[in-house]
Input
Amino acid sequence: MLPVYKYIQQNGLILLIHVNGTKYLDEFERVLQAYPKMKVICPHFCLLSGKLEKLADLMDKYPNLYTDTSFGYIKYTISGFEKMAEDKEKFQNFIEKYKERVFMGDDQVVTDVKIKKHQDFIENVLAAYIDILKGKEAKLNIKWPIKNDEVFDGLDLSGNISNAVLTTSPKKLLDSVPAYSISK
Output
């Protein structure tokens, strides 16, 4: 992967890489150290949502590191929402501090089959991800792939913080990628 990382860094592109921060943190840090200007999105809080202080250390050391608020498969989403509700202040502080590098995400695989059959699932999960950030509560009411009807305490982020996480910060990162054209 080293030539790929080099190309990404040299061309101002963005790498989105899933890293299990509890298992592969040393290897990941070696990549971040070797390519300090490479913009890297490590989704799902780098699987460190239970160790936000560790992720904060990474964010402090590597200013080109970004993350998102998604948790992945629905069982992980429910568990993540529970964690956010239990440690509300911790997540609020983390997101506020890194509002320019934390993006809203909901990590849904969308295909024609799923859209036609499970559009309510997609809409409800997306709404819950937005509400967990912006609202005082988030309702996750789904019937597929598992049944769930829970209300979680939301983070109730202020308008400028939620706007950064939902809109301006991801746009700023995407706008930083140079225009690219493929020669024929």
Q: What stands out?
A: The chain has seven helices and six strands. Helices lie at 2-10, 25-34, 52-61, 74-86, 88-97, 112-134, 159-175. The mean pLDDT is 93.
